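Two proteins, back to back. First:
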Amino acid sequence: MFDVFGSVKGLLKIDQVCIDNNIFRLHYKATVIILVAFSLLVTSRQYIGDPIDCIVDEIPLNVMDTYCWIYSTFTIPNRLVGRVGKDVVQAGVASHVDGEDEVKYHKYYQWVCFVLFFQAILFYVPRYLWKTWEAGRIKSLILDLNCPIVSEQCKDDRKKALVEYFSLNIHTHNFYAYRFFICEFLNFVNVVGQIYFMDFFLDGEFSTYGSDVVRFTHMEPEEREDPMSRVFPKVTKCTFHKYGPSGGVQKFDGLCVLPLNIVNEKIYVFLWFWFVILSVLSGISLAYRVAVITGTRLRLYLLRVRSRLAPYKQVKAVANECHIGDWFVLYQLGKNIDPLIFKELISALADNLVGKAPV
């Protein structure tokens, strides 16, 4: 099992320099790892077996398996409820009349591994854009000041370089900050869009899939319709046609077992809850970002929390001189620089930008 997920270990590496936030990392780290791991899992036959096994008389089994995998299988929706072994052979599997009974075809299972991997790529796109736009600015600015063991001479030189940088580039960071905010917005759009995409992929079943599964567990056994069997049936039907000895078309109905759906049904239950939670958190993060952009007092409070060791009046003096982009760069530096050094940086900035602030 560890061999299967070994290829995603690189995504677990902790970045030495933080250029984003926890919600952002849920998108490009946690979600990408989950989707890539699931994509690898559904392609691992050593743990699941063959993705399809069909049974039919007079047709070689390997031919039937290949045919039904390529051309899809089907279930009968109005046969999902019933006693297995008495009313129906399996949930959704029973004799039917063409043209009278509704037939639901299942074609998605060939594409699950590809779709999961494609979704992982989409979740990484905002991160890729931000890394490209950010271009290592925060890493170059911290100048190894994230290490608390720095010689006084070295610390003073690097601190002076940072103060000089801000003095020369004050009010020029707005575009830098807004590109990060755009990436946060893309994260929200992406997760909501992917919920709709998976709903389309599963023929309109995904949007209510998780809630249906929860509701199913609280219903009486004889009344409930298993949504997991409806969306991911473990046993389906497949019809094979061929010419008979007299040249007429012969029809063969077969039963197909889909072991892969045992995994798929759990994967998509997890993804339903994960995507709903992630979209809610991303929406809250966007509301927070709007409040930060529009609220100068909130920015002052957040900078004060980040530089809690510095005197309040010095923090306020620096915050009053900063536009949203300057504040954002300072806040990012505060995440990476040692708190004692960041306190000294705020004090030096207060002296440099507005004169020595009263203590």
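And the second protein:
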Amino acid sequence: MVDTLLHLVRRTTWGPTPGLLEEVAAVGPARWLEQQLDPSRIPDEACDRFLTLFPKLNRTLQQVRAQERWGDARTMQQLSYATIGRYCWSRRQLFEVMCDFWSNHLNVTNTVPAFFADRHDYDATVVRPHALGRFADMLLASSRHPAMLRYLDGGVSRKEAPNQNYGREVLELHTLGIDGGYTETDMKACARVMTGWCFRGDGTAIFDPRRHDAGAVRVAGWSAPDHDPASGPQVQADLLLFLARHPSTARSLATKLVRRFVSDDPQPDLVAQLARVYLDNDTAVAPVLRALFASPAFAASAGTKTRRPLEGLVAAVRALGAQPGRTGAGGADAIFIAARGLGHGPLLWPAPNGFPDVATAWSSAGSTMRRWNATWELTSRRKPDNLVWPENSNLATRIAGCRTWGQFLARLVATLLFRPATQPEIDALLRLCGRSSETPLSENDPWLAQRLGDLSAIVLCAPGHMER
């Protein structure tokens, strides 16, 4: 039962925390999963307190542009820190996993000054309200948000010169998929449909009928006749709803969800099953997730997915039980800087396709070394000074009741990886420490007193920690 719980928690959260497996076992995995699929009913006071450190995220688009000069990065930084903190400390863990999933699927990078005033609102009004809702609603909201209009040039696309960036990506990445059956002609026609949006002086988006191509058009089996330019937004919504409900979109999204939660090589039968659930529920996300987590393929996939660098770092914070401080960025700034150094800072992927979600994309020697160094800084040196470290991670507590080094190392691995230590893991640690399994344990052992943090870091650098 514990193995089943650990598998579920690893895949549906950013990593287990002390006590989380016991919590899931107490309510039952099915009920816990239903609670996670209804995040608004999960109290999240500690994370809410943490988020008060970032008041700039509560401002409207107009307020940001009125109060900050172009290119001011402070709002962008607060969004980055808040995002890291939510992953580390929110109790609404499946929701935060899905926010990350959709932020990558409908990616708008948080690295370019042109988006610094908009990206926080995109997160608040596009991604988060719809992360467990209907994909069709999220797609429409994304298409009209100033951040996406700037990112893919929709705000400069007009009937005299349709910009094809959004028309291409909405078909290739957001809906049908690269093998979804659309043509170059479809892409150009889609760009024509999406013309008409521009920006007010305060940075918000507005539809200008004079800029809209109101001619008859066909896109991937959908069509619209000549129409009143003022009805352009409705025609655009009709096209996006058609695309959201398209079988190719269902297959593309199901493939990405299986890749995220089950396997780097999505199983065709499971993809087809989830695509049917998606279409039968009018693009709703939660029913698809229920079917996915109930599938035999999900149950059989334990140990087959690898955490990406950001996931490994956040999972280490969660495994150690570190909590946010009450000043500055609460320690989230240091975690973010470490993640950025790993090439996996949240919301920082520059291209429209989002961060890759397969192990081979992150398996280089350089990537591994950077992850080890970041984990070592966090665990051994406890680098973020304003994180609050739990008292039960001190030496006396770690060794209490252990008579030998073998017992102690088995406990350390089990505490940090949330499952029994394997014999090869214990043997490797014993060789590192120059001890045998039966060597008596003493709190006065100078090696142990000086290097407990090093041992914890080694466990969290090992392959066992990187199992998603």
